[in-house]
Amino acid sequence: QVQLVESGGGLVQPGGSLRLSCAASGSIFNIYVVGWYRQAPGKQRELVATISSGGSTNYADSVKGRFTISRDNAKNTVYLQMNSLKPEDTAVYYCNAERPYSKENYWGQGTQVTVSS
To answer: Mean pLDDT throughout 27-51?
Structure first.
């Protein structure tokens, strides 16, 4: 069982930055693929970025060049650095952890990011 706790959300002006954190319980978190997803009001949840156990990353086209996902396995934490934020980045951001070759899949409770002047 893995528990995920997101933090770091808040209100920021357009062009600003935020860093989200996803802290996980469990000693084998380093083998999980971790992703950040977001869901805006009235829209479906969408993938933002993922990072594999080996550090390979993948990004949605809408955030490439602005967002960076990283992980610190010693701290059981995955980060999402968000720069040059736009109003359309406003959403609840969720952390997801998936264990490869298994049905194990976990979600955090989400953290609100609001980009507005």
So the answer is: 92
